[in-house]
From TrEMBL:
Xref: Pfam families: Peptidase_M50 (PF02163)
Superkingdom classification of source: Archaea
Location(s), subcellular: Membrane
Sequence similarity: Belongs to the peptidase M50B family.
The species this protein was found in: Methanosarcina vacuolata Z-761
Cofactors, names only: Zn(2+)
The name this protein goes by in its record: Zinc metalloprotease
Transmembrane stretches, start-end: 21-42, 48-67, 79-97, 109-131, 143-166, 197-222
Record-annotated Peptidase M50 domain positions: 58-129, 137-201
EC number(s) per entry: 3.4.24.-
Lineage per the UniProt record: Archaea, Methanobacteriati, Methanobacteriota, Stenosarchaea group, Methanomicrobia
A cellular component annotation (GO) from this entry: membrane
GO biological process, one term: proteolysis
Length: 239
């Protein structure tokens, strides 16, 4: 069974939707419908308006994720790396590309994504706070809440991706910094170890405050760090 399908091309890069993405839209829309501002639309009545705003926000969120991936891809292309595709998945997106030879380039490519998310986040929050909120006509209309929700989500996306742990961009930035001083395999191992340590701290924190999401995300981060480490050390042995 095909696990992804192509929806178009941007900058000559095939844009694909993973089949898990079909679940992502309703899950994200539901998340926005049951969370309060600035992460959702609880309190907006009638229900049909709340769910319409939530669905629109879910679509815009994935457009934001696509822009994040395109920022990585744009810079990677400029450095001459091949990008085979961008795929949108249940949680976020992946740009499949060659890893550039120069560690400094990998760091810049990795940083371009979160930087784009932070810029979109700040522009949305600035617009909401200084344009929408200050006008009584605009602030009465719940449709503009989408700008606030999108701003907050893009900030979360940017900050979360800067965590120095695989598979987040922060993990790649860290690896490329290490790779200036050591081999790529050793740099991956060191970055993965830091990622695992952060995952353990995150799990302990989650258990301490009684929030199940932290241990779940920590488990995912720990697994990703192990995979990345194993992948490169096996690659090293096979060369
Ligand atoms: Zn990214």
């Amino acid at each position: 069974m095909q696990s992804s399908f192509k929806i178009g091309n941007i900058m000559d890069i095939p844009i694909k939707l993973d089949t898990s993405f079909l679940l992502a839209l309703p899950i994200s829309a539901y998340f926005f419908a049951i969370n309060s501002q600035p992460y959702g639309f609880v309190g907006v009545e009638p229900t049909v308006v709340r769910y319409t705003l939530s669905t629109l926000s879910a679509i815009f969120l994935f457009v934001s994720v696509l822009l994040h991936e395109l920022a990585h891809s744009y810079l990677a292309k400029r450095y001459g790396a091949n990008i085979s595709s961008i795929t949108l998945l249940l949680f976020g997106g992946v740009a499949s590309m060659e890893i550039p030879q120069k560690p400094g380039q990998e760091a810049k490519i990795a940083f371009a994504g979160p930087l784009t998310s932070l810029i979109i986040g700040f522009i949305c929050l600035f617009t909401y706070n200084y344009v929408i909120s200050s006008s009584s006509a605009l602030s009465q209309n719940p449709i503009y809440l989408i700008i606030w929700v999108l701003g907050s989500m893009n900030l979360v996306l940017g900050i979360f991706n800067l965590l120095p742990a695989f598979p987040m961009d922060g993990g790649r930035i860290l690896r490329s910094l290490f790779a200036r001083k050591m081999s790529y395999v050793k740099a991956t191992h060191s970055a993965a170890s830091i990622g695992k340590f952060i995952a353990i701290l995150m799990a302990i924190y989650g258990i301490y405050i009684g929030d199940i999401w932290f241990p779940l995300i920590a488990f995912y981060i720990y697994g990703s760090a192990s995979n990345e480490d194993r992948f490169y050390s096996e690659l090293d042995r096979s060369v």
